[in-house]
Amino acid sequence: MAHIIPEDGTLLPLMEEFYTIQGEGYNTGKAAYFIRLAGCDVGCHWCDVKESWDAELYPLTAADVIIQHAAQHPAKAVVITGGEPLMYNLEYLTLQLQQQQIRTFIETSGAYPLTGYWDWICLSPKKFKAPLPEVALNAHELKVIVFNKSDFLWAEQHAQMVSPQCKLYLQPEWSKVNEITPLIVDYVMNNPKWEVSLQTHKYMNIP
Ligand code: SF4
């Protein structure tokens, strides 16, 4: 039977949750509890979590249970990712986390309306479903995955959508990391408003 997901965000399709180190972007190297919500219709062909796309495969889990699990870990920070987590109303989950002094970070394509209370919003836009301007304007970090040379122009177009304070990162797509990293290095040296982001968790063999 299909999931009926309550609009108040008290039940969410949870694919997996784990305590690890944030491997990429601004918060690289910091311990955090990862909450991966299932469901995504963005359809990136290089997606490395395609098993997250179908939310029906995963149990609806009480947000209160997820919060209890997160609170058991020493780092008082969560990264809510997916899938595309903004497919769901995240107000309840994030408000309760913040009330327990747990900082809330999100990784999103920005393709859905922004809900929730956030200490850090990482917008990683995707070609297949454009980010909404409201998400771009609220982003603390713009992280563009570079798959080929034309993506630098695409990155600049998205940099126009974010606030002046937003941090700008270029990250090589993992399957082309050896080919793309030198291009990013050159680009960042010539355009230093951008910084390099690497998927350091893949080098460390951690999730
Ligand atoms: Fe995969 Fe993220 Fe793209 Fe969805 S938005 S298809 S989860 S990379």
Brief descriptors of the model:
6 helices; alpha/beta; TIM Barrel; binds iron/sulfur cluster; nine-stranded mixed β-sheet; 207 residues
- Tell me the fraction of residues in β-strands, as a range: 15-25%
Low-confidence stretches: none
Please count the beta strands (DSSP E, at least 2 residues each).
Answer: 9
Which ligands occur here? iron/sulfur cluster
Tally of individual domains = 1
**Distinct helical segment count:** 6
Give the ordered list of helices and strands. Answer: EEEHEHEEHEHEHEH
Notes on the structure:
This protein is of the alpha/beta class and 207 residues long. The chain has one domain (11-204): Aldolase class I (TIM Barrel). Helix content is 25%, strand content 25%. It is built from 6 helices and 9 strands, in the order βββαβαββαβαβαβα. α3 links the parallel β6 (120-123) and β7. The longest helix has 14 residues, at 177-190. The two termini are 31 Å apart. The protein binds iron/sulfur cluster (SF4). Iron/sulfur cluster is lined by residues 40, 42-44, 47, 49, 52, 82-84, 109, 126. The site of iron/sulfur cluster (SF4) has 12 residues, from loops.
SSE order and pairing:
Layout: E1 11-21, E2 31-37, E3 60-62, H1 63-71, E4 77-81, H2 91-99, E5 103-108, E6 120-123, H3 133-138, E7 141-146, H4 151-159, E8 167-172, H5 177-190, E9 194-196, H6 200-204
Parallel strand pairs: 2-4, 4-5, 5-6, 6-7, 7-8, 8-9
Antiparallel strand pairs: 1-2, 1-3
Helix pairs in contact: 1-2
Bound molecules: iron/sulfur cluster.
